What we know:
The protein is mainly beta. The protein has a domain at 62-162: Immunoglobulin-like. It has 1 helix and 9 strands. The strands form 2 sheets. The protein has a 5-stranded mixed sheet, with no helix packed on it. The chain has a 4-stranded mixed sheet with strand order 1-2-4-7, with no helix packed on it. β1 and β2 form a beta hairpin. The longest helix is centred in the N-terminal third of the chain and has 20 residues, at 22-41. It is globular, with a radius of gyration of 28 Å. Copper (II) ion is lined by residues 79, 106, 148, 150-151, 156. The site of copper (II) ion has 6 residues, from loops.
Amino acid sequence: MSTAAPGAFRAPRRGRPGPRVGRPAGLLAVLLALTVLTGCSNAEPTLPEATRTTGGDVGAVSTAADGVQEITLETGDDYVFTPDTFTVAPGEVRLTVRNTADQLTHNFLFTAGKGPAEISEQIPVLAPGESKTIDFSVTAAGDYPFECSFHVALGQVGTMTVSG
Ligand SMILES: [Cu+2]
C-alpha cells in the first residue's frame, strides 16, 4: 500500500505566456503619439470632455401658446454656446441658457453697443448645472451679438439675428 505523495498527480502547471511586449508597446507608442499631437494642438487648460447633451429642445426656436418665441442655448465645460447663432422674428423672446458644466460658471449678455438696439436683460451668473431664463422683446431687425463676458476672450460669443 503505497500512498502517493500529495500532489503527485497534479498536472504540471502550464506556463503562462509571458508578457507580450511587441503589441502593447506598439499600441502605447500610438497612444503616446496621439497624446502629444492633441496636446500640441490646444494650448488651453485641460478640461473634461464637454458634458453637453445637445438635442431635444436645444437650438430650435419654437413659438409658445402665448406667442412668445422660445429658444434654449446650452453651454458646458468649454467656451461655446450651442447653438451660437439663431434667428427670431420681431416680438417677444424667451431665452433659456442651460449650463451643463461640472466646473465652469458662465453668464449671458448681449454685447453692449453692438446690436441695432440695446437688450439689457441678461443672466449675470450661471453656475454649473444651472438653467436660467430671460424674457425680452425685439423690434429692430439685424444682428445682436451676445457673449459670456467671463470667456469672451476665449471666443465664447454668438449672434442672435432678428429678421422678418
Ligand atoms: Cu463662459
